[in-house]
Amino acid sequence: MVSEGDELPNPSTVVRYVGLNQMEHYGDNVVGPLPTAFEGRATDDSLSVTWCEYFVGHPDHQLRCAIETIRSSMNVKRKACFCVARTDDLAAAGATFGRAPRAVYLPVPRNDAHAGIYDVMPADLEAITEGELKLLELLAREAWSRFLTREMADALPLAQCEKSPDVS
Amino acid sequence: MTYVDTGLLGHRTQASGGLSSFAHTVVDGFRRMIKIGQAGHLVLEDDCTRSRVTRRERRLEEIQRVISSVSMHLPKGFAVGLNGQFANMMADDAWEDDDAYPSMLSLEAFLLMLLSTKVTQRPGIGTNGRGSITAFWRDGENRLTIDCLPSGNTRWVLTRVNAKGEVERAAAECQPDRLCEVLNAYGPEVWFGQ
Amino acid sequence: MRYKKAPILEAALEFRWQPERPLDAIRASAGLHAFSEFEAPKERKLFNATLDLQGGEISHESKKVGFELALKDGSQIVIIESDKFVFVQRAPYDQWQTFSQRALSLLEPVAASLGVSEFSGIGTRFVNRIDIPQVDGANVNTDDYITVSFSGPRTDKGVVHEFQMRVVKPTLKDGISYGLGVATSGSLLPDHTSIILDIDVFTEGPTPASGGVFAKVLSEMRDEKNEIFHSCLKKPAVDLFGGFEE
C-alpha cells in the first residue's frame, strides 16, 4: 500500500509534461526532450511527475489516465509533449553521477497521481555544474527518451481511470 | 560613449511633415514628443502605438528587430529563418504561460554565439523557461545543446560519438566568444557545418 | 545586384493623401485579400496627454488613427492610417525592384479601395548601419569611411569619438528634397563601431497615384537615395559590404 510521502514501488512509470520549447524539435519534427526539460523549477525541491500505476489497468490505459490527469490539472499547450520514464532508469542514470534519485508519492490538488523525483535536479539552477549538465543530458537522451505528442497521447486507449487498490 | 538610438527605423519619412530625426525616435517606431502647448500647458504626445499588443508580442518584435539588424553578418536566409522560429516558439500553442520571456541579454549571447562559431546550419531553438534561449543541433547520435543565458554566458552540453564509436559527453559554461575554441576538441563541424 | 552584406537595416516607402479617409474605410482596406499573408491587423492609436501646469490637472485623449499589419517573421510591416500608407521592409533587404514592387502591390488595392488618385506626399527612407571593426581596440576614424566630417572651431588631438548630424535640403530635382542623418552608434558586434546613415528622400508636392509621372517620381527618388548613399561613402566602407551578390 502506497501512501502520501512513500517512495513509489520500483520500477514505476512516471510522466512529465514538457512544453515544446524544451523538446528537441526541428519544425514540426519532434525528436525528444532537451536537457532543460528536467532542470525543474527553483521553487521545487523535486521534479514534478505523474505516476502511471496510480491507476489500474493495462500500461497504455494507465499512461492515458496519467496524461488526462495532467490535462485536467493545468493549461496544456497544443504542441507540448508528455515524456515517459521508468524509475529504475532514472535511478541508474543518477547513480552514474553519484546521485540516488527516488520517486515519492506527493498528491497535489487536481492531481491525485502526482509524484516528485528527488535528488535528480541541479542544486542551484543559476550555477548548474558540469556533472549536473551531463546528468541532464543523460536523462534526456536515455531515461526520458520516450515521449508522446498530443496526437500520440490521443491515440492511446481511453479508460475509466480508477485508482489502484494499492494506493491509500 | 553615447549612442544614437538605432531602434527607430523608418516607420515615418519626412513626407509625414513631422519630425523625422531618428535621434527623436525610440524603439518600436513609438515616438514621444514633449512640446509647450498653450500658455501654462505641457503637451505630451505619444505618436501612434498599437492597442491589444501583449507583452509577449512586444518581446517577439524586439527579438525579431535585433536579429534583423545583424542579418548582414549571418549566413543568407538565417535571419528570416530565425525570426520565423522565434515566432513559432512564442506562439500561443507553444509558449508556456509561466515561462519568462527570452531576455535581450540572452539574445545577445545567442547572436554572439552564432557569429563567433560561424555556424552555417541554423539551430533549433527553445528556452529553459527562465529567460534563456536554447540552441541545439543534431547529427545522428551527436547532439549539441547551448543554453544562452540572461547572464550573457552560455552553458553547453554535448553527446559525441568519437572515431572509436565511444560515446563522449562534455559540458561547461563559458562566454559566447570562447565557444569556438572550447568546442573545437569535439569536431563541431558536424553541427555547425564547414 | 545587391551587396553581400548590405548595411540596410530598414527601408520604408510612405504615401500620403488628403483629405483623411474615415476609419471604417481604413479598416476595410486592412482586410483586403492583398494582406492575407499578414497577421491580423492591430489598431493604432494616437495618445495625447495635457498637463495644466498651474492647476496640476492631467487630461488624456486617445484617437484611433489606423491599423498595422506585420508578417509573422516580422520582416515586413504595413501601416494604414487615415491619411497615409507605409510599407516597411526590415533587413535583409533585397533590391529596389523587389522592395518597390512589393510595396506597390500592397498599396494599389488600398488606394483603389479608398479612392485615392493623388498623393500629397511620397517619402522613402533607408536606414543604414555600417559596422566597422576596431583595430586593437582603437577608436575608428570615421573620416576614413565616410565623406561627411566634422569641421569645428578647434583643432584638437585624436579622432572624433562620436558625432551626430542631420540636414534637410532640396535636391537638384524639382519637388524632391532629402533629409540625411549621420551618426556614430554602438554595435552589437564585439569590437566594432557603427556609423548610421539615415536617408530620407521625399516629395514636396502632389503626385498622381499611378501612371508614368508616378513611376518617374519614384524612380527619381530612388536615384537620389542611391546617389546620396554612395556619395557619403569612401572605399573602405564599401569594402565592408562584401562585394556584390548576383
Whole-number count of domains of chain B: 1
Largest sheet of chain C: 9 strands, antiparallel
Report how far apart the termini of chain B are. 37 Å
Write down the overall mean pLDDT of chain C.
92
Order of the strands making up the biggest sheet of chain B:
4-5-6-7-8
Quickly give the structural class of chain B: alpha+beta
Give the % helix of chain B: 25-40%
Tell the overall outline of chain B. globular
What share of the residues of chain B does DSSP label as strand, in percent? 25-35%
Largest sheet properties of chain B: 5 strands, antiparallel
Write up what this structure looks like.
- The complex is a heterotrimer of chains A (about 170), B (about 190) and C (about 250).
- Chain A is built from four helices and eight strands.
- Chain A has about 170 residues and is α+β, with helices and mostly antiparallel strands.
- In chain A, a hairpin with an 8-residue loop joins strand 6 (about 100-105) and strand 7 (about 115-120).
- Chain B has one domain.
- By secondary structure, chain B is an alpha+beta fold.
- In chain B, helix 1 runs antiparallel to helix 2.
- Chain B is about 25% helix and about 25% strand.
- The two termini of chain B are about 35 Å apart.
- By secondary structure, chain C is α+β, with helices and mostly antiparallel strands.
- The longest helix of chain C has 22 residues, at about 210-230.
- Chain C starts with a strand and ends with a strand.
- Chains in contact: A-B, B-C.
- Strand 3 of chain B pairs antiparallel with strand 3 of chain C, so a sheet runs across the interface.
